[in-house]
Write a structure and sequence with these properties.
140 residues, alpha/beta, Ribose 5-phosphate Isomerase B, Chain: A, 5-stranded parallel beta sheet, 44% helix, binds D-ribose
Length: 140
């Protein structure tokens, strides 16, 4: 699967870990930055990742900031984007199974690389359950 990745300065080091993991799992990564720890504005990177998902270049996206909150707020402003804040395993998995999340948001100041790795593994491999969940998604 091709996955767009983006972060702000708060998510830079966790993004590197997530890129490494995704490549090990055989995925293709489109890294939209940022690429240094200079302070940047997370909506710019949310926009870049969501554009990749919206135009079909990438099937899904992962956004990382300090908490994941700003990225999830920004990402959900874009048409067709269903971004879920997934700082723990159950919510992240259910965001795929019940909400067909196409963007995962993580908080690098909230979770460590070990948990983030488990979350990403689960999120990329969990299928959407469809059925009544599709009906609910069609309502917004
Ligand atoms: C940046 O300092 C921080 O505000 C940002 O990474 C994020 O946590 C916003 O939601």
């Amino acid at each position: 699967m091709k996955i767009a990745l983006g972060c702000d300065h708060g998510g830079l080091s966790l993004k590197a870990e997530v890129v490494k993991l995704l490549l090990e799992l055989g995925h293709v990564v489109a890294d939209q930055g940022c690429h240094s720890d200079e302070s940047v504005d997370y909506p710019d990177f949310a926009r870049a990742v969501c554009a990749q998902v919206q135009n079909g270049s990438c099937e899904r996206g992962i956004l990382i900031c300090g908490t994941g909150v700003g990225m999830s707020m920004a990402a959900n402003r874009f048409e067709g984007i269903r971004a879920g804040l997934g700082n723990e395993l159950f919510t992240a998995r259910m965001s795929r199974e019940h909400n067909d999340a196409n963007v995962l948001c993580l908080g690098a100041r909230v979770i460590g690389p070990g948990l983030a790795g488990e979350i990403v593994r689960s999120w990329v491999s969990t299928e959407f359950a469809g059925g009544r969940h599709q009906r609910r998604i069609d309502m917004f």
